[in-house]
Queue: 4 jobs
Job 1
Amino acid sequence: MLSTREAAERLGVALRTVQLWVESGVLPAWKTAGGHRRISRTAVERLIEERRNALAGDERAEPADAPSQFKVMVVEDEPQLLQLLIMVIKGWELPLEVSGARDGFDALLQMGRSCPDLLITDLNMPGMDGFKMIASLRAQGADFGAMDIVVVTALTEAEIAQRGGLPEGVRVFYKPVPYDHIEQLVRDRLGGLAAAA
């Protein structure tokens, strides 16, 4: 058995993240007579394995000869804003495949099946936040190195720096969402791919 703090250390996430995963059912747990949560070591190991598979890809990943389309993933914990972002991006009438995720953990699980070319993410999210998700992706090196990462956040530059900053190459836009700038970035990337082909 593990305490929530021990589980957080084993998973490499904040204590609050483990508490949220327990509350949402991602991690099964029970309470002791004293009101403390206890988590099965097996459940933690299973979650670590799922995260590893999500980052490494699995047999459900697209075959190499599948038709390639520019993939965009949007990660945002506010459901209305997530739907709005997806709707606006689809409205650009570009050859895009757009998907959404509610937090970093959900995004990593989806990336195990299909890695996006462009990741648009919030930073402040329950569960695995944008900082931890981006750090996890960059730690994988070449596997996710070609992915463009764009952050759209309400945090200030100083607040981002206080939380450890972001890796080099991550573009940051501040809310309200600058749709025109993101569209131009996508069009530029598509133009570059067309020129290379």
Note: Residues 58-67 have pLDDT under 50 and may be disordered.
Job 2
Amino acid sequence: MRVLITAGPTYEPLDPVRFIGNHSTGKMGYALAETFAAEGAEVVLISGPTNLPDPTSPTIRTVRVQTADEMYRAAAAEAAATDVWVFAAAVADYKPAHVAENKIKKAGDTLVLELVKNVDIAAELGKTKRPGQFSVGFALETENEQAHALGKLQRKNFDLVVLNSLRDAGAGFRHDTNKITLLEADGQVTIFDLKSKAEVARDIVRAVLARLPHPHA
């Protein structure tokens, strides 16, 4: 079994010094990579900028990227040859329309930035998904959580969505723990307690393996 995982944030440059990013640490995606590898999978881990070392498992290949465009190109190059896709990265929705060649100097009391929409990696790859391939998305929500997560599942051709709520203490960015709800295309909902991200990764991997069309090692 071959697994593609995206992890961490993306950094969208404003100038040579500054970027637009987010607080994702990559811990959830890296834990998933290690857990899939422990189940015998070959894993391609496409990671945005993180402070985490590359996983040491010999069956995990780590590809480092910075921007959403780089992450999309790297994922698209691997997608056709993989059986399971896990989109755990927190990809920036927007990027600056223009990247300044030199550091933007302070001038005036306000600075107006024009942002343009980034490629939606999961949605674009979802259009190419073949029968037998299994796609897992993540939804980090703050309101109407399940409705937004189910909308994402349908829009991006996911088989399973992992929902995090920022309203749950100890869940989301910058934590070593997470609290998830799994939502499936058939409407099934499974709610888990707050656990370490390593334990959450095991719950997710078990759920994926149980739902694959064919048994895998």
Note: Residues 197-211 form the longest helix (15 residues).
Job 3
Amino acid sequence: MDSADPSASARRAARLSAPELPRERGPAEADLAAVTAPDGTGLFFCRTGTEAGWTGDFVATGGPASGTGVTGIDHVGFAQPFDHYDEAALFHRSVLGLEPAAVGGFAAPSGLVRSRAPAAGSGSRRRVSLLRRGEWAPGVAEPQYVALATDDVLATARAARAPLLGIPDDYYADLDARLDLSPARLAEFRDLGVLYETTPDGAYLQVCTEVLGGRLILAFVQRVGDYDGYGWTVAPVRMAAHRRRLVRQGSRA
């Protein structure tokens, strides 16, 4: 998390009973204060845009590939264990100063999911979604995801190097029945695995990778108009597709 004064943020976290995370620091490494969230997740406070910032620890290898359209981070999702959900919500409000922006629920393959999305400020696109759910896929009890913002999700999907998640055809048959999409547009959505949600304010297009490294999911999202949600109506489709993919991988192991 970016912070103007990482040390002060760490001290505030400690006063709120968020224990400091023990870590070793090399002589040339940035001094990053860190605390532990209720579920054990390490949270680092860091500066950007200064010589003392964490970016100095890395060697630049080039920016995003031309034409991907990725503009930054839209939001980050943390899947929380059942017993830590309320603690996590309180932690993000009190320690990070995030304000409640949206609360929702939807049916997932493993049962009801509660989702809470605190925001980092009015109009901010940098948010955290907190989920409560049981084990929804073999070997992935608490998957985490990072949603990357893009101004053209179709171009981003075509340029992506990570394996993209395939979405069942019946989802697109449902889209065709409900929405006035051209055959060419629908075929492109189907080919790239695009999930599509519309509201009176705008639309939300999303493409996801398969589960990477056993736990992480990347999503590429495009907001159209004044859409300000998180794609919760299409989340069950995404979760079911991930589950089906992992079940098939397990059956071949």
Note: The CA atoms of residues 200 and 227 lie 8 Å apart.
Job 4
Amino acid sequence: MQVRAAALTALGALEEKRYAKLFTKALESKSYRVQGAALQALLPLEPKQALARATAFEADNKGALTVALVSVYGQAGGQAQWPLVLRKFDAAEPNAQFDMLAGMVPLLGRLEDPSALSEGIKRMKDLAVKFKAYGVAEPITRGLRQIEQQQAARPTAAEAKSLVDAAVKEIQDAK
């Protein structure tokens, strides 16, 4: 299954529509790794279909499939998916949390819910502070600034800026 997942990932990187049916078929696999690779590969080709298919995996997902689910929700989801993304992030091991940031950042950039922004930014800040010694502060800070930029034209822009500024300061001040 690892080889099949790797093949799907490689084909997915090509972003060619002709592979969409292959990715859709691979979603029927029993392997979380294969399902995750297929879902990730389908996302840039057919975001609406990837979003619809992702919901079928909400009740049963682990590892690569959970990361793919968060990625799909990050790119194509909205406020309705935020509670699940937050639960999955909180339940994940640190390495998976880092992988999930690629989905969380764009989702937080689109949400107009101050409590969701606060929750997400706090978790990113906490992760950066806890693992700062491992060089994660800079990429997480870039993600926070990306959220701030995406929020700039939204009603929550001022709050997002304030939350991001405070989080970045705390990351910088951490030992």
Note: The radius of gyration is 17 Å.
